[in-house]
Amino acid sequence: MPRPGKSSYSDQKPPYSYISLTAMAIQHSAEKMLPLSDIYKFIMERFPYYREHTQRWQNSLRHNLSFNDCFIKIPRRPDQPGKGSFWALHPDCGDMFENGSFLRRRKRFKVLRPEPPLPGGVLPHFQPYGLNGSSPSSGFKHPFAIENIIGRDYKGVIQASGLPLASVMHHLGYPVSSQLSNMVSSVWPHVGVMDSMASMPVSHEYGPFGVPMKALCHPPGQTMPAVPVPIKPTPALPPVSAIPALTVNSSQICPSTLPASSSLLEQTPPTPSEGKSALHSVPVHS
DNA sequence: TATTGTTTACTCTACG
DNA sequence: CGTAGAGTAAACAATA
């Protein structure tokens, strides 16, 4: 990661891509996450080139934030008022620029995304997301979203138990948005827990939905069994700082089925030539 | 209303 | 030469 000092460059265009510049700004921050305005500020402070034509490059930068999976959006907590979210680096995208070029990465960092659930309760299976760099209109993008983390960590439990992600989240003590609840209950109306969760307002703090269903990872064609889910009171949310490192005893959910550790990130094993830190990416398929 | 965020489309260019 | 990453423009939605 390049670490230029303040105003390291004159008015000439720095040899960094927007992704690199943004990553620099985020890495430079104490919290390793910044709101958009602070990313702008960082870049303009250090690179005079970007003190002009702000509308142009800032639009490009925003495009990069949304488009590239290496950036994740972290919602503000209630005690952090302001507009927009914080932006952070995906933990697995660290060595994008290892080849020494900050203009062009070796390969675009992509996160696997499942398809949304099919009508009739047929569950989707995980598939690579973002074909040819395209971004589907509905899809989950945020690996730090609580639904995603739980879906990843408890994929095995979800698979074995047949419980919807929302139910697993509920058992773990996480609130579930009415949006997610509605999505699930529309597919599996027999899952009663959704009714009680519909009134919980909190979930948007952890990211957009459309995603969460990704965690409902069953083999293709398998249908969701009718499993009644007991309703339990929902404890307070954990601090945001605890989210990436979330670990909960899976026996709380289904003692007989330990979570099969799986990741939403398809990881390409490094080749000898790539060394220790190959970029995680998924093959593009059409 | 300005800012933030998403998405699409297109061009250019580096890379294999 | 084909592919994919990067840059740009633009339309549009959501939100503080």
UniProtKB/TrEMBL annotation:
GO molecular function per UniProt: DNA-binding transcription factor activity, RNA polymerase II-specific; RNA polymerase II cis-regulatory region sequence-specific DNA binding
Gene3D superfamilies xref list: Winged helix-like DNA-binding domain superfamily/Winged helix DNA-binding domain
Subcellular location: Nucleus
Amino acid composition bias (Polar residues), ranges on this chain: 259-268
Chain residues forming the annotated DNA-binding region: 13-107
Entry-linked Pfam families: Forkhead
GO annotation, biological process: anatomical structure morphogenesis; cell differentiation
Keyword Nucleus: yes
Protein name: Forkhead box B2
Lineage: Eukaryota, Metazoa, Chordata, Craniata, Vertebrata
